[in-house]
Design goal:
Blueprint: E1 12-16, H1 23-30, E2 42-43, E3 46-47, E4 59-62, H2 74-84, H3 89-102, H4 118-130, E5 136-140, H5 148-164, E6 168-172, H6 176-182, E7 185-190, E8 193-198, H7 200-207, E9 210-217, H8 220-230, E10 239-245, E11 248-254, H9 259-271, E12 275-282, H10 285-301
Parallel strand pairs: 1-6, 1-7, 4-5, 5-6
Antiparallel strand pairs: 2-3, 7-8, 9-11, 9-12, 10-11
Helix pairs in contact: 2-3
Length: 302
């Protein structure tokens, strides 16, 4: 592992990377789930488990695996962790009610965890991590296995936590949509190394030099030969193309200048009927991530 980053309060930092890149290992080292063999971890400027001073750490952790007592109910879990974090019995009961209502778990609160679904278990794992306003929150793929509507519900809970709590959040995810919605900054791990770091917008601007033109045409061969080849739609810039159907084509082009001319040409040919519809966009965060993920595959094979 070769990572070096810091996270501010009220910030959500996302760790991205292909399977085996080191995302969960990084979180496990930070939370001391597994012992670190090298490097240092600091909370509020104080090294953890140093020989001279051990800091008071307020931490919430949602691991990939849902670790629960199968005999205990949903409510009992939340109340138990609130008591661990210093709340009295009455306060724990009242706050547990608020968390249960916020997550829509009223109908499941008295069920033992062995009787609830995987999605409900993920909700409970998240509530265990954030209950009691911990200063550091770690979320390892918190929405894995959830349906789209539940996932967005959880996103709102995480956003509210970041806004209301004086907490620093680190989360891992395989969803680029989730990363862009929740994270203020992102770091991409490849083979245990942090290869880039910055806001989603910064990463797309720095590494998204490719632009994607997707179009539907009444005569795709004519469009390619006349507009792309003869009229040099992309100038001298290199491109690749992929035909997705008999009347649809996708071009991936490396260009940083004269982007407006592409729109002008496409609008012109749309007005005369050769182009039915099109989109011309900068490479998405997901496409950038795939490029970095390929580095892991290539390096692993060698």
């Amino acid at each position: 592992m070769d990572v070096n980053f810091g996270v501010r309060n009220h910030e959500c930092f996302g760790l991205l990377g292909p399977n085996g890149a080191g995302k969960s290992t990084t979180l496990n080292c930070i939370t001391s789930t597994i012992p670190q063999t090298t490097g240092k971890v600091y909370f509020n400027g104080t090294e953890t488990y140093s020989s001279t001073q051990s800091p008071q750490i307020s931490m919430g952790y949602c691991p990939q695996e849902d670790i629960m007592w199968k005999e205990m109910t949903v409510r009992e879990h939340i109340e138990f962790f609130l008591k661990i974090r210093g709340y009295g019995a009455n306060d724990a009961k009242n706050y547990a009610t608020q968390y249960i209502e916020a997550a829509g778990l009223e109908d499941h609160q008295h069920k033992p965890t062995e009787k609830i679904s995987g999605g409900t278990k993920r909700k409970l794992s998240l509530l265990i991590a954030i209950c009691g306003y911990p200063k550091q929150i770690f979320l390892d793929e918190p929405t894995a296995g959830m349906d789209p509507s539940t996932r967005r519900f959880i996103w709102n809970i995480i956003k509210s936590t970041k806004k209301m709590n004086d907490s620093a959040l680190i989360m891992t995810t395989h969803s680029m949509e989730e990363a862009e919605n929740l994270c203020d900054r992102l770091g991409i791990l490849v083979n245990g190394r942090l290869v880039c770091i910055g806001s989603p917008e910064h990463i797309k601007m720095k590494y998204g030099e490719d632009y994607i033109l997707e179009l539907q045409s009444t005569d795709i061969e004519k469009f390619h030969e006349k507009v792309v080849v003869q009229e040099k739609l992309f100038g001298d810039c290199s491109y690749t193309m992929e035909r997705s159907s008999h009347n649809r084509m996708k071009y991936e082009v490396k260009m940083t200048r004269n982007l407006g001319s592409v729109f002008d040409v496409m609008e012109n040919y749309k007005s005369v009927g050769l182009v039915v519809d099109y989109s011309f966009n900068q490479a998405s965060l997901e496409q950038i991530f795939i490029k970095f993920a390929k580095m892991q595959i290539i390096n692993t094979e060698h």
